[in-house]
């Protein structure tokens, strides 16, 4: 039975093989077609992926190159920033240095301001102390001016001393004015003397009412009264003399090596540069007017020099005696003798 049954099935399968296999083949064909389509699609997709990758690769390379350039640019910028930062630091250091210098200058200026204020205060004190402690009657400006009045001597008032060592030894004196280095340096006893110039009346120890204007005017005078000397070295070597007037450069002065020193002269008037006396002896009551005009004796008047060609005197000229120096002729004497002879002749005729 079993055999029959299997035999019938085999026979059925044999007779209906095409009918049975057709669907299977159709299924297999569809399956293969599907696989082929899938493979084809995968191949197409793979190609598209490759194309897309190739398309993507180009911008990636460009981006990589741009990125490298950007890195290079960033490095350059960083180096530039470093340099600029160094320059900025250097500028800042310079500014700090200049600022320190400025502060130092400000400190120096402040110090100078302080010094100036101190000097102003000292000057104010000096002005306040110009009047010495001697009854507030003397004025002194300059180192060691009125030196003795500040210590050993307390007698002296209404004196003015301006300049170093001016009126250095002044004492027991009143109303003297000395202006210039060492002017009236040795004056001890004197009143109303005026000295203007370096060394003016430097060695004058005693005297009243003397005027010396000019450097070293009346320089060697030790005792003198009522003298007027105006000009450089005027009356320089007149050690003892009174009532003289010398106006002009080196008037009344012959220099330290000269034998014509005016040691003791009185009541002379010398006007003009180098005017004075031409002899070693002392002379008095003489007048010499003109450049290098010289007196050689007392009671003499000289106007001009031997080179003078003409002297004009206007108005009446009263002459007690007239002498022609060339022939040594006393014209007045001759006239007087002639008058006597004429009187004698007239008497005889009568």
Q: What is the fold's blueprint, element by element?
A:
Elements (H helix, E strand, L loop, with lengths): L1 H14 L1 H112 L10 E3 L14 E2 L2 E3 L10 E2 L2 E3 L9 E3 L2 E3 L9 E3 L2 E3 L9 E3 L2 E3 L9 E3 L2 E3 L21 E3 L4 E2 L9 E3 L4 E2 L5 E3 L19 E2 L4 E2 H19 L1
Parallel strand pairs: 1-3, 2-4, 3-5, 5-7, 6-8, 7-9, 8-10, 9-11, 10-12, 11-13, 13-14, 14-16, 15-17, 16-18
Antiparallel strand pairs: 19-20
Summarize this structure briefly.
The chain is α/β, with parallel strands linked by helices and 350 residues long. 41% of the residues lie in helices and 15% in strands.
Describe it.
This protein has helices at residues 2-15, 17-128, 331-349, and strands spanning 139-141, 156-157, 160-162, 173-174, 177-179, 189-191, 194-196, 206-208, 211-213, 223-225, 228-230, 240-242, 245-247, 269-271, 276-277, 287-289, 294-295, 301-303, 323-324, 329-330. The protein is an alpha/beta fold and 350 residues long. Among the domains are: 20-125; 318-350. A 10-stranded parallel beta sheet has the order 1-3-5-7-9-11-13-14-16-18, with no helix packed on it. The chain is rod-shaped, with a radius of gyration of 66 Å. Mean pLDDT is 78; it is low at 1-8 and 131-135.
Radius of gyration: 66 Å
Average pLDDT confidence is 78
Give the overall silhouette.
rod-shaped
Strand content: 15-25%
Distance between the termini: 250 Å
- Pairing-aware structural class of the strands and helices? alpha/beta
The major beta sheet can be summarized as: 10 strands, parallel
Order of helices and strands: HHEEEEEEEEEEEEEEEEEEEEH
Helicity, as a percent range: 40-55%
Q: Total helix count?
A: 3
Outline the low-pLDDT stretches.
1-8, 131-135
Q: How many individual β-strands?
A: 20
